[in-house]
Amino acid sequence: MADYPTKLADLPKEERSVSSGHRLCTGCAAGTIARLVGKAVPDKPLMWVNATCCMEVATTIYPFAAWHVPWIHCAFENAAATASGVRSGLDMLMKKGRIPQRDIEVIAIGGDGGTYDIGIQAISGAIERGHDFVYICYDNEAYMNTGIQRSGATMHAAWTTTSPAGEAIPGKQEFKKPLLRIVAAHGLEYCATASCSYPLDFVRKVKRAVDVKGPAFVHIIQPCLRGWRFGTEMSFQVARLAVESRFFPLYEVYWGHKFVLNYPNPILTKVDVEDYLKLQGRLRHLFKPERKQEILDVIQAHVDKEWDKLLELAEFSERSATY
Amino acid sequence: MAKAKVLGMMGDFAVAEAAKLCNPDVIAAYPITPQTIIVERLAEFVADGELDCDYICVESEHSAMSACFGASAAGARVYTATASQGLALMIEIVYITASARFPVVMTIANRALSGPINIHCDHSDAMLARDSGWIQLFAEDCQEAYDSTIQAFRIAEDKQVSLPVINCLDGFVLSHSIEPVEILEPTEEETLDGFLPIRDPLYKLDVDAPIAQGLLALPEFYMEIKRGQQEAHLRSLDVIKEVIQDFGDRWGRYWPVVEPYQMDDAEVAVVTIGSSTGTGRAAVDELRAEGKKVGLVKLRCFRPFPVKDIQAALKNAGAVGVCDRAVSFGSTGPAYADTAGAMVGRSGPLIKNFIIGLGGKDITIDTFRAMYDNLYADLAKGEVEEPVEWIGIRGE
Ligand SMILES: Cc1ncc(C[n+]2csc(CCOP(=O)(O)OP(=O)(O)O)c2C)c(N)n1
Ligand code: SF4
Ligand SMILES: [Mg+2]
Question: Are A252 and A262 in contact, with CB atoms under 8 Å apart?
């Protein structure tokens, strides 16, 4: 069993992935996510395959690049397929003795758009083929890079520029796609959700994913201050409430069927999802000019239903035998 | 020098044999007629342990090219094959691969683009990649398809070039036709007796020397980067010619970028691409026997477009018809546009365009007779009346 850091001070001091000087928005958690991923695997060289998204455009504006690792971007929907090729190329060159034998980890990373929507086929294919890589989705619930358009990850009722909060249609009508369950259905050894407001849990999961020989997947919530409309100092507070309100519970799935719930602890008093929603300008229309109780109820009911489903899966996993 | 033996084989098999000989490290491919046999055959080689290669059975052509991009970035020798809709699906990444200067060799077994859906030969698929920045070679027969495949790896991986290469062979007409093909049997297989050195990448993903690739370039730099890409592409013509020379010196077959046939005294001539060249030569022979001074120019290397070679080949003809198995709707055939562009501003032949053989329509000796007659008529009038003519349309 691998050693996992038990306190933040255990994490390496040096930056291992993205460096300062990038041009992500002030207070954007995407940078923190990239940094934590780097710090989670201090002992392994990384190769970073980035989909088109905020993290890509804001960190590599020619002739500058803000990366300490070999980094490559190809397109929006193909980080997983590109990573397949990188993995395959490295492995063959090592096998043939053309490059030194090294235990290199290939990280593919994409936003929710590049993962839930346009990239899901390539991700499914790469997981099915069993390449040894980690796919990370940082989920800010919209196409932020292109100006806040709705994605399959956008929560119900949220305003985006393509799901405006109008008189007739108050924001996005559909619900967030259950990404991790879709990924888990491939039966891969390990996938998990994470939040940078739970950094030790985050780091443990990334490390766990990296240790898998084969594909692994980590799905990270990333509140976006521009798209969700909150202050530059609030990303971590929002990311924490996403978890505490059970909107984005932190859990792991082993081999596609063993569900382990990490946070929030079910015995803690339930935090209403409203506490999470009301911090976000993209949901202001649920509170102003007048309160839209029906929509709030629908959101809460959906969160409760998904939570119950997760508890059931976790309890079933615990009851059912021999992992 | 390498020995050689002759086998009867379909074009697709010949290409697969050649690709195998070149020892790719990674193949990522997706089946589509009429290319499928190539990737099936390569899968067999890998399964039988005859080829030490990671064969990635991707879930689409888009991912095929993405995986090729990634593997080439890692420094591997990479191969794929596709056609028609497959190329259309991957085209986004086809462009990106060229701009990244990643060598990849891709065979296209030319097939018409949908719609209507059609599995037979024309060059509309290849022309979709015309502006992508890939070097594009077209084969006349199965032997050339075989030889081109081997040359393509050397060209692509040459450090002065470092560009991906598309090798075209006409769907069914070559891909599924059995012809005698002389197979190379090098004594030293790893580098084909030194013809094809192990890939030494210009730059690569390297944990000991990290670089970032695929950056965003804003208006301050985008155009400069594109200019660099253009210069590398244009420069590649010299390397292509060197490789052709070296290959020919070793194995006795030279496949020039532009090959004139009976052009010394030709009054009228056609420019052909791909397998119709063979039919064209037969037509030339027949017409010459009847006393008509006709000629033909085979265009093997379509990108980079060999402007000077085309000028030299056509300059003395009276009237020239450029045969395109593709059309740019609302305009002309693509090869015509390039050829006419090459001849602008110099005294030379009348030039017109023939659209032939779309979606597998037969190209026969009569097709060529019709084109030569047409050219003679223009030559007699001293002007081109109808610059673009579709040959062999029902009822016309
Ligand atoms: C094929 C293609 N379609 C559309 C785009 C435009 N585009 C670039 S990034 C992007 C959205 C990215 O959203 P997401 O993956 O959620 O990342 P974020 O920017 O939100 O971090 C879009 C629509 C593109 N680059 N390529
Ligand atoms: S738009 Fe959102 S995700 Fe993108 S850099 Fe700004 S805060 Fe980060
Ligand atoms: Mg997003």
Answer: yes
